[in-house]
Amino acid sequence: MSAEIQDEVEALNSIYGPETLVPAEGGGGGGADADDPPTSFILHLPGDTARSSLRLVVPASYPLAPPEVHSTFSTGQASRATAAAELRLFRHAVATVFQPGMPCLFDAVEELSVLMAAEPLDVEPAAEYPPAAAGGGGGGGGAVADVEAEVDYASLPPPPWTLSAPFTEQRSTFLARVAPVSSPAQAASYVQHLLATDRRVRQATHNMTAWRIRGPGGTSFQDCDDDGEAAAGSRLLHLMQAMDLWDVMVVVSRWYGGLKLGPRRFALINQTARDGFVKAGYVKDAADDKKKKSK
User: Fold this and answer.
1) Of 100, 144, 146, 247, which has the fewest beta carbons less than 10 angstroms from its beta carbon?
2) Are residues 184 and 209 in the same domain?
3) Is residue 16 assigned to a domain?
4) Mean pLDDT to the nearest integer, 274-278
5) In a domain, 193, yes or no
6) Residue 56 three-state SS
7) What distance in Å separates the CA atoms of residue 11 and residue 165, rounded to the nearest whole number?
8) CATH number at residue 181
9) Measuring CA to CA, how many Å separate 39 from each of 42, 51, 237?
10) What CA–CA distance (Å, rounded) separates 85 from 125?
11) Distance CA 9, CA 43 (A)
12) Range of 271's domain?
């Protein structure tokens, strides 16, 4: 277990109670080397006793890589709908506060308190998203200007993003967000919500997107957006086609570090997207399969 996660365990447990963040039984990990296995924790959401608890998976490379909010561990006295909403909100909280190299769990718990105060947890959010024009990435926030004035995306429930590990090369950083989607309008609205609510994403040099959706009656939809990085969106879409992924979208953000990567940048974009799909459970990790076969 890294010194950073130990500090966060101590801070959370000293402020919110001694059982707020505890290692999961058989959680593995425990080392601080990047090759060590990840460590599982149980986060008992502070506050109301009716709140649920969540299973977190913290990689050995944390805080360079984000923690994975894996699942609901226990609903406690909360309803299943409330527990699902708490899981979704905490995933959004982690996605909002995470910056590579900076511990984020304590800040994510604080952010969760803000989100929970702003949103009734017994309301299903899926139908709340208004239609949005397809396309539109947002390097520097350009797409935000296209959002109709009457649509306040910041007031809508956050999309259920799953984050990839960040990949950094030549001072450029790449980070993918993956979410399930059921319509092109929902996918476009998720992009708009991300740009409207995440300042760091708005400051990215490029936010490249792609999605594939199966519709009713055998119809299908797919689209992509380069956001100024020529052919990057179409390469993401080709990756999804090759992986046979449906009803999912990906947004890959790049923060340019001042040194050109040449064609290598496309490999990094796809590598980041694939890691996001693996972490979101859309594809098996080949490395994990090899480990299982070797046992």
Assistant:
1) 146
2) yes
3) yes
4) 95
5) yes
6) strand
7) 24
8) 3.30.230.30
9) 10, 23, 33
10) 9
11) 10
12) 135-294
